[in-house]
Amino acid sequence: MLLVEPARKAGLDTAISAALAPWRKPRAVHDPGKVLLDLALAVALGGDCLSDVAMLRSEPALFGPGASDPTVSRLVGALAGAGSRALAAIRGARAEVREHVWKLAQADAPDAERQVTVDIDGVLVLAHSEKQDATATWKRTFGHHPLVAFVDHELAGCGEPVAGLLRPGNAGSNTAADHITTTRAALAQLPKQYRRGRRTLIRTDSAGGTYGLPHGAGGCPTRSG
């Protein structure tokens, strides 16, 4: 309930449904946006594969009617086939709802002081089997090395995830192009007034201390340390 109700009251369910309307077939029973949110809920509840949406189907009174495994699989295949178009639709819906939620939060929003801080860092994610793009890492483990971006909520709460770049385990720590891609994706999640200018600060650790990052990340002030 703590996941379902905020999504509903923030309008995330309707925004995702509207964004994914082009992928809904005329006679489809299940809404693509609802299916995608069910997948997100399944992951939050500990799922690690598409078929784990079955745990939501077992509680229709809470989660509503759930799609079958084949229906979920077909939707994921369709979205994957659409590539950047589907990602742009989903990211646009997330940005729209994020701006709405920040307005509702007022003094508790991360931009309450009319400035935003975004932290970008890499993290090693271990894989215990031959997953796609899983490779040996620089720490002699095996898995992935994504870059993730979080909006800093300071003492009011933990970081708010806004963007992530999936990368193989052998991806470099200080690859400027990857930091630029992640920074641009993070800026696109912010309200428009924070996407350019000095009211947004991008922070990284020393891996972001490259010449390429401040010149290619949209003119936003950066700081590494």
Describe this structure in words.
This protein has 225 residues and is of the alpha/beta class. The protein has two domains: 81 residues; 113 residues, no CATH class. Helix content is 40%, strand content 15%. The chain has nine helices and eight strands. It has a five-stranded mixed sheet, covered by helices on one side. A three-stranded antiparallel sheet has the order 2-4-3, with no helix packed on it. Helix 2 runs antiparallel to helix 7. It starts with a helix and ends with a strand. The mean pLDDT is 91.
Extended strand count = 8
Which regions contain 5 or more consecutive residues with pLDDT less than 50? Answer: none
Q: What is the number of helices? A: 9
Mean pLDDT: 91
Q: First CA to last CA: what distance?
A: 39 Å
**Broad structural category:** alpha/beta
Shape descriptor reads globular
| Sheet of most strands | 5 strands, mixed
How large is the share of residues in beta strands? 5-15%
Overall tally of domains: 2
